[in-house]
Amino acid sequence: MVQRKKWFSSAMVLVVGMGLAVLATAADAKKQERLHGLLFPEVIAKVNGVELDSNFIKFEFNRVMTQVKQPIDVRNKIKIAKDIIDREIVRELVSQSGKNQRNRNFF
Q1: Burial level of 38, CB count in 10 A (0-12/13-18/19+)?
Q2: What sign does the dihedral 99-58-43-30 (CA atoms) show?
Q3: Which among 11, 23, 42, 48 could bridge 31 via Cys, Cβ 3.0 to 4.6 Å?
Q4: Domain residues of the chain, as ranges?
């Protein structure tokens, strides 16, 4: 009887664990958004430990795509997205550099 309870509790832990894993996978799938045929994760990059979320990147990408009058293939869409991401990374690096300079000059 005791072995059955142990087996049952082990089985229940396994089932609950698998259920949580499925929910976690579903949550990760929601962290990506498709925009004009490209997937954008919630966090685009980490710059010195600071996460860059994709909201501005998606906004800029959408703005560029609506201004273009002709169809663009996937390769060029990826290039446009990379350029926007690169600019945002440089902006964050400059921002962090400015903060470091102010902190050094403050003391």
Answers
A1: middle
A2: positive
A3: 42
A4: 1-30, 32-106
CB-count exposure of residue 65 (10 Å: 0-12, 13-18, 19+) = middle
Amino acid of residue 74 = V
**What's the pTM value of the predicted model, to 2 decimals?**
0.64
> What is the C-alpha to C-alpha distance for residues 53 and 41, in angstroms, rounded to an integer?
8
Give 38-42's long-range contacts (Cβ < 8 A, gap of 24+): 38/74, 38/77, 38/78, 38/81, 40/81
Structure tokens given for 99: 């903060």
Distances (CA, A) of 35 to 16, 25, 43, 79: 34, 21, 15, 14
In degrees and rounded to multiples of 5, residue 53 shows phi and psi of: -80, 165
